[in-house]
Amino acid sequence: MSATSTSIGDLVSAGALEFGDGYRTRRSEHGRPGFRIIRVADVFDNEVHFDGPDFVSHTQANAIGSKVGKTGDILLTTKGTVGRVAVLPPTEEAVVYSPQLCYFRVLDHARVKPRFLRYWFSSHEFWDQASYRMNNTDMAAYINMADIRSLKISLPRPSVQQGIAEVLGALDDKIAVNTSLSSTCIKLAEAKYQRLLTTPTSHVTLRDILRLEYGKSLAATKRIAGHVDVYGSGGIVGTHNEPLLSGPGVIVGRKGTAGSVHWAPKAYYPIDTTYYVVPADQNASLAFCFFLLKSLRLNEMNSDSAVPGLNREEALSTQVRMPSAPEIRTFTLSVERQFSLVDQLGRESNTLMKIRDTLLPKLMSGKLRVKDAEALVESVV
Prior knowledge:
The chain has helices spanning 8-13, 61-64, 114-120, 124-134, 145-150, 158-196, 206-209, 286-294, 312-316, 325-365, 370-378; strands at residues 3-7, 17-21, 34-38, 43-44, 47-48, 55-57, 74-77, 85-87, 95-97, 101-106, 152-156, 202-205, 210-214, 223-224, 229-231, 238-239, 249-253, 261-264, 268-270, 274-279, 319-322.
């Protein structure tokens, strides 16, 4: 596969690409209605969340200029957690990026295919250059605008770019469908929980229903990739023969992402920045506890410690509604079927991700022809 070597800076100079960092806003410029600020924490690989609390007032539109987000922008996290990549999806609200994000906007589609560029940011060619640049500092990992401009990129002819993007994109599109179905399942289960509360209920404290037990510490040397879910560690990693809790389980963020609520379908390890749930009432299933906790504003129950976190005593003292035992059993049987489907979709998506990550370097290097990759993808999608 023949390819032309160029750089991000050359593509910008040629008018084929626009890129920049986010808008540096002052607190005095915040306000609603306005532009929702997309921060590093809102960007995951292939996913952008639109639930951050901060907005830049519409009065700053002229100052923001071209830094207003556009559908199709390729986003790269450039500080702290460097290298997460996503494409801004269609959204009905106006957004602006924080300075710790960099956006890339393809202007000449005849030269650069946007989705190819997105996958290039996950390739060895990008990471071989970026890993040196971002670690060339005593501070937190960071890659600056000048370093990004200097990145070399091998561009195959547009038809090959398109083929690579379509092969890898077919896998990501299927993963996105699975994610959407999973989200729908959870929303349906949440609706069932809300209907459950319309029946006659008794009022008790959360302490009467469940306990929040402390997670366990886990040394960094005992973490490996891809063995078992570890919650509260900033990602899903693994352990070296550490004692696990059998799934399913419910995990609540204690520090960092305080108040977040997670469902663990199988064996899991709750790290020491989390609580894990143990029902205190024999009629309270874990599924019921999960949706009950999600319905509470746990993120607003902050402790007064040096490192803010979930105030466990305040949470457990909260007054909640407790349906009857038969109603909880009916609800649990119903949502557990939906959880089973979510788990099935998750396993399928993990398989598709592994195939995508195996194909990506081979396609980018030309070691695998697009036609051969297409045949493989057609057999699994």
